[in-house]
Amino acid sequence: MQAIDFTIVLQAWPYLCSGLAFSLALTATAFTAGILLGTGLALAQHLEIPVLGHAARIYIATMRSIPLILVLFWFFFLAPVILGSLSPDGRPVSIGPTSTAFITFCLFEAAYYSEIIRVGLRALSRGQVEASQSLGLTTPQTYRYVVLPQVARTVAPIVLSQTIILFQDTSLVYVLSLTDLVGATSKLVQLNGRFVELYVTVALVYLTICSLASHCVAILKRRTAGHAAQR
Amino acid sequence: MFDVLFDQASDGQRYLDWLMSGLGWTLALAFFGWWIAFAVGILVGVGRTVEIRSVALLARLYVEIFRNIPVLVQMFLWYFVLPEILPAAAGHWLKQLPPPWGSFLPALACLSFYTASRVAEQVRAGIEALPKGQAEATRALGLSSVQAYRLVILPQALRLIVPSLTSEVMAIYKNTSVALTIGLLELTAQARQVSEETFQTFAAFGAATLAYLTLALVAYGLMTLVDRRFHIPGPAQRSRPRYGRLRTAKEA
Lengths: 231, 252
Prior knowledge:
heterodimer; A: mainly alpha; MetI-like fold; B: mainly alpha; about 0% strand; transmembrane (chain B); membrane (chain B); transmembrane helix (chain B); AA_ABC_transptr_permease_3TM (chain B)
């Protein structure tokens, strides 16, 4: 075996950064879409909308019961078929692994975010909704101006912790041979065989980012807890 | 739809047998991984709450490291990197292990120690949720600190955290699928193989999905039984086991 030599990491650094950029882009997209869709799913259940509420429940339970890798495989195979059936000629549309990853993560994370938001909705005192109604607000207005802003504040730390897990989970796009941080590393390893240096480096990069992020979340959590105590 | 699973595969077995063998490895990994994670998690969780500075610091370091590196990367560290940094003989032995064991053991170590870091946080939360009087009373009774943890603190703390441990049980059986990246033919890997050989992707992935859903229900049911059996009786409001990872996310 070659002697361990971390200078190889310096050469690899720009390529690793491009991989990291992809991981971050995927995280940001899945976060945004996941929150929007997740709020919809949570509201469908919370407001007990007929059919939709039940459908949301089944969707969430299923997504949360199967491994993310299997979901990635499912969408890699299913998305072209579904898109094909929507297009006029009905032939499968190839969308490639990158789009698969983005679609899967948005849909998968929505299930996890919606559970967090649903608990936040349940925790909000009923008086808030009753007061809005007595002020003459419509249901959409109630949720838009009164309920959701408060829920957002209480669930923010949990949502952010989930986002750190999401960032770690994006490494699984490796199974679709995409070039995220782990994918970039494994491609370099195939070229130069320096897996000890490269895998240790990638572990340290994740460790640094996720530790810093969880400390920020812990600080935020303490602050929101402090505010709640003052009220 | 599942007819194809009863067809004969290239190696003389039925495709169903491939999936069953995959399910076997998934279950073995989840089962043994869970018990190791539970044991290590209790030790580390207790370590985080003791008054000896160095022990608490080590326990905290353990949790920081194992929780903040993705499972996939940890898998690679155990599989690729560990044999290189071990003494040559041990590394060689690891690399020479016959096929399923060569990836099963690193996968088991990876999932156990990763899950242990999450269990440790739950155990710590459970211990910190107990009233201070419990620890003080053990001291007043003259119990040693080992006795205090073993006889008074842990029995109560563990019963408090059964609902959040449910999430960890669900998480470890889902994380077993990451082992396919180091070549373990567990359920997801076998489903992909069946789909590649037969082009019956719906049947292959559908069967695997049903198996995972059943596992989720069984795990959830078992943990509900455990919760009912060991729940601390009394008027205190009991929390029912929650589905999924929510509790764990809160602690992160």
